[in-house]
Amino acid sequence: MTKRAEKPRITLLYCRQCVRGDAELRIKLQQDSEFDLRAEVLPCSSKVRVSQLLKILEPGVDALELVGCPVESCRLLVGSRRAEQRVAYARGLLAEAGVDPERIGMSRGMDLSADDLLVFVRKRAAAMSERKNT
Amino acid sequence: MIFAERKPIEEILEMIRGRKRVLLVGCATCVAECAAGGEEEVETLAPLLRLALKEKGQEVEIVTKTLERQCEWEFVEELTELLPEVDAVLSLGCGIGVQALAERFPEVPVYPGVNTSTLALRPEAGLWVSRCSACGDCVLDETFGICPVARCAKGLMNGPCGGTREDGKCELDEGSDCAWKLIIERAEARGELDKLKKIRAPKDWSNSRHGGPKKVVREDLRT
């Protein structure tokens, strides 16, 4: 097993409206940090469906973090609220199936930098390992 | 639409236990409308089952297919090529769909992935309400388009039971309107309250499920 494969595999999906312009580039530059991180930008956090969230986890991704705009700042008005409902539904499905629901989570923010996004990723990883250890 | 809800994951896992390759089949008609068994639900349940099975250390391959309708032979035929490759079918179709698959492919076990419960209307996104019980003797002409069989908890045919709450809700379910209150209000709005004075005879249930398995023949449509 390579060193890279030993790192927690995390997928980060984020709304393009809530980040600074250079965030995607910077995230990619930092993929060789403590995570095996895949970052994907979305036109809106609500564009992701429940089936997609689960399909991302299926091949062995440890956790998925979806980042959207604050409720009151969503440019599609109800986009990030819808995304939050889908994340909650997906977490419920995981729990029902006996899979750690902390593997999927959502954060919000505006004008986010790559470092801000990495904070969310670290929180997701911590929530997951905290649950694993209890 | 025919309304159904997904069975608990644990129940589904128990059904497919010991199987090697399971075909998960959706239906793009009624169960898609009630978000229980359409393509999105199939593509959600498949990875969820794979994750759950992995967690349990079980190896079961899940393949997916969503038919336009599980209750029509011409669409069911689309499964013919896939069936030899699987040792079980998990259907997210309604009870009719499950039986159609089991009848067409009797050599393979077909498991129900949903519970079919009623005929429902979706008045708004994410909300389904029962509107028809398929009783076989429709009285909607006499009840101003509101069904007392499906919507009155007691299925009363001659007015409210007397237990209606002050806010007009059913005494058995505070979330449901008293069906007879709705009927009376609609009759009153049309100025036809008098029509409700008619005493309806005991309902004829012989054309419903209580009358035994139903078979309808239309010679003009047979080939």
Characterization of this structure:
The complex is a heterodimer of chains A (134) and B (223). In chain A, helix 2 packs across helix 5 (114-133) and helix 3 (50-57) crosses helix 4 (79-96). Chain A is globular and about 35 Å long. In chain A, 43% of the residues lie in helices and 19% in strands. In chain A, strand 1, helix 2 and strand 2 form a beta-alpha-beta unit. In chain A, strands 2-1-3-4 form a four-stranded parallel sheet, with helices on both faces. Chain A has 134 residues and is an alpha/beta fold. Chain A starts with a helix and ends with a helix. Chain A has helices spanning 3-6, 23-29, 50-57, 79-96, 114-133; strands at 9-15, 36-42, 63-68, 104-108. Chain A has one domain (12-133). The model of chain B has no long low-confidence stretch (mean pLDDT 95). Chain B has 223 residues and is of the alpha/beta class. Classes of the chains: A alpha/beta (134), B alpha/beta (223). Chain A binds chain B through residues 49-51, 54-55, 57-58, 93-94, 96-99, and chain B through 8-10, 40, 43-44, 47-52, 55-56.
Summarize the structure.
Chain A is of the alpha/beta class and 134 residues long.
Topology at a glance:
The complex is a heterodimer of chains A (134) and B (223).
Chain A: H1 3-6, E1 9-15, H2 23-29, E2 36-42, H3 50-57, E3 63-68, H4 79-96, E4 104-108, H5 114-133
Parallel strand pairs in A: 1-2, 1-3, 3-4
Helix pairs in contact in A: 2-5, 3-4
Chain B: E1 2-6, H1 9-16, E2 21-27, H2 30-33, H3 39-55, E3 61-67, H4 73-76, E4 88-91, H5 95-104, E5 110-112, E6 114-124, E7 127-132, H6 148-151, E8 169-170, E9 173-177, H7 179-189
Parallel strand pairs in B: 2-3, 2-4, 4-5
Antiparallel strand pairs in B: 1-6, 6-7, 8-9
